[in-house]
Amino acid sequence: MMVTRSKSSGLLKLVEERLLKKKTEEEKKEAQISYIPKDCISNILARLPADSLQRSRFVCKPWYNVVKNPKFIHAHLQRSESVLIFLTPNVKESLHPISKKIKVGENGRSYPMASNLQEKQNKIPVESKLFYPNSIPIFGHPALNSPKNFIQFLEFKNGKSDIGEYGLSCLGNNIRATCNGLILLDNKLKKGGVIVLNPVTKKVIALPVGTLCRLLHQESYGFALSDVTGEYKVVHLFLDQLGFAGCEILSLNKKAWREISGPSFGRFGINGFGFAPVSAAGALHWILHFNGSNYVVSMEVDKEKFHQIPLPKSFRTHDRIIEIGGSLGFVIHEDVNHIDIWILKGLSGEGWTKQHSITVDSKIDMVPLCSLRIKGDIIFRRYKDGSFYAYDFQQQQMTEIGKINGLPRCLPHVNSLVTWMQASEDIFD
Fold first, then answer.
1. What is the reported pTM?
2. Are 197 and 118 in contact (CB under 8 A)?
């Protein structure tokens, strides 16, 4: 009887061992099938829009770690296409309960320019984040009950344009500058102040007040990344009482303004602040806003030195400088149906070269706004009716892609997860 029990227990143990071995082998096989290398996950996630990544990072801890990695954020930035960012006034919905429509595309399709009342009420005031972590009733602050603008963007896909939402409102009336997904906004809670915001991640910081100017057209803000130090710099150019240009710079790492020498080649003039500066080729570039201007004012971001660069042709009303493939481009109307595109070879006197001529369906009032980072098309807007056009260099074709009534000021932008903060400072997740 003892022998029988011993055999039974030995047989049972053998069966259990075989079952355990089989289970272990099945688990290993399942793990091999379901395992995706981290590099593959990163490569897949890098192709998602920035707003989708904001949600996807909470799927699991490995995804969160991937999305928060600075190398991944940079890789995603390089894959992201250009958009145009702008502010939309908050029209009183009691008078206009139905959302307005705007014509889009060559087939006359329409899309909403403004959301309905319920959607508008759900917009988060950017300024409310500036009170965190203070324990005051932020949504009861009197300033936050003032009329607001809504931050929106225009994206371009498959020959169409579409308006995107961030779910944000702001008190400011101007987007002063953009850089790698960060924008510079007026801070209406502090006279003369500005705010840095990533509208995708909702991270925001108020900068200390610099030199105060009486009028908006007497100052200009630039925003750029230093290739040498990797820090974001805000450049404030302004007119002094004698009409000469002064300059101060703030590094987002140090958050303190410091004065530098402004342009030393004469009076900059109030017309120097008509357009936001263009960041390209390691410098910020300003073009004087009057017919006949024949040079660009440039400041090297790393050396913080100003230069005067002659233009290949004199500036006229609808001409602009824009960033094209990392270089500075000058888009000029030669005549009613002829647009030339010039590229600056370098900042050391190498001069300009004419890269392309557009002679198909161009109009004299087409103002170039930006060059798409990935596709390379140049986006134009007609001042006559607010319609947008894209010029495809490969097809040599100009296509109408949308329209916005009211002609809001649009700046080139890219939706990204870029931040100026260190991980320990990341308090607004």
1. 0.80
2. no
Can you read off the two tokens belonging to residue 406?
A: 């009211």
- Counted residue by residue, the chain has a size of 429
E strand spans, 51-202 = 82-89, 101-104, 109-112, 124-125, 149-157, 160-170, 175-179, 182-187, 193-198
Q: What is the DSSP string of 343-354?
A: EE--SSS--EEE
**Contact present, 327 and 344 (Cβ < 8 Å):** yes
Q: Helix or strand or coil: residue 218?
A: helix
| Proportion of the chain in helix, strand, coil states, percent, rounded to 5 | 20, 35, 40
Q: Give the span between the Cα atoms of 324 and 339, in whole angstroms.
A: 15
**Per-residue pLDDT tens for 145-168?**
666 899 999 999 888 899 999 989
C-alpha separations of 334 from 70, 260, 327, 338, 357 in Å: 44, 38, 21, 5, 9
Q: pLDDT at residue 410 above 70?
A: yes
State the Cα–Cα distance between residues 177 and 275, nearest whole angstrom. 10
pLDDT tens digits, 197-253: 999 999 999 999 988 877 667 889 999 999 898 899 999 998 877 777 889 999 998
